[in-house]
Amino acid sequence: MLAFAVRRLMQMIGVMLVVALISFLLFRFVGDPVNQLVGVDTTPEQRAELREQLGLNDPVLVQFARFVGSAARFDFGISYQIKQPVAGLIASRLPATLELSLVSAAFALLVGLPMGVYTGLYPNSMLSRAFMAISLVGVSLPTFLVGILFILVFSVNLGWLPSFGRGETVSLGGFWTTGLLTRSGLVSLILPAVTLGLFQMTLIMRLVRSEMLEVLRTDYIKFARARGLSSRAINFGHALKNTLVPVITITGLQLGSIIAFSIITETVFQWPGMGLLFLQAVQNVDIPIMAAYLLLIAFLFTLINFVVDLLYVMVDPRIRIGGAKA
């Protein structure tokens, strides 16, 4: 188990170094940082002095090593447009994005898993057909259109839920802010969380349904029925357990996707998270924020994949055996 974890951790570090190189090239070659930091009245001498202060005259390898070291300390420099440390800007937006992403993932898993189990056990029932119709809508419609439709129905026509913003938040420990402890924060979270998690919910439901139908046709399930085991023990003790590995895979990857691609949802609902900050940085060609966002998302992706790999070993010991032989 330890050797398996160390091997995966080394792979994670290698991936992060590759992403850091891409971020560094983006930071270095997409425009001149000096032009973004100074005005039109700046003299050539002042520009040269600023380039020396920023270390832009150093060799490329030295600059890359400095960039990696700074990123490891969560130091991404100063924003070109906002003129504030990028680390502080991301730290102030990170709680909103993680809160939205985790609630969306919980919604997708807690709703999609029971729906998938039910449609797998009772594929011909009317409720199963209704669930499949809902899943078809969730898979087919793009996220921004779903968000706009939700705003039109629940905010404009019915007036039940707010159409933008995060609502009232409270501070926990001075760094983390959350809206889960206030009524307006919870209400404001409903529409963006459902919008962001709808596609993942339908994906999990269809995957669980497909796996359940396949497992229920296997010989060992027929043997369990012949032994007189109860339907509950067969369905949940044997069939559902053997669907967990692909479900863990999809859930882990989709959590990373939710965090990375929350940009659209945050833009539609004006949710003050990292996605909205990144989109504004793209519009203003604010390279430090763009590079920091790329590194942070890559780190979250690799961390989630690392945790998923460890869960594989816990759920299916054959993976650990195969890893030990490799």
Protein described:
By secondary structure, the chain is mainly alpha-helical. It has 2 domains: about 1-70, no CATH class; about 85-315, MetI-like (MetI-like fold, Orthogonal Bundle), CATH 1.10.3720.10. Helices cover about 75% and strands about 0% of the residues. It is built from 15 helices and 2 strands. The chain has helices spanning about 1-30, 35, 45-55, 60-70, 85-120, 125-140, 145-155, 185-215, 220-225, 230-240, 245-260, 265-270, 275-285, 285-315, 315-325, and strands spanning about 170, 175-180. The chain has a two-stranded antiparallel sheet. Helix 1 packs antiparallel against helix 14 (about 285-315) and helix 14 crosses helix 15. The protein is globular and about 85 Å long.
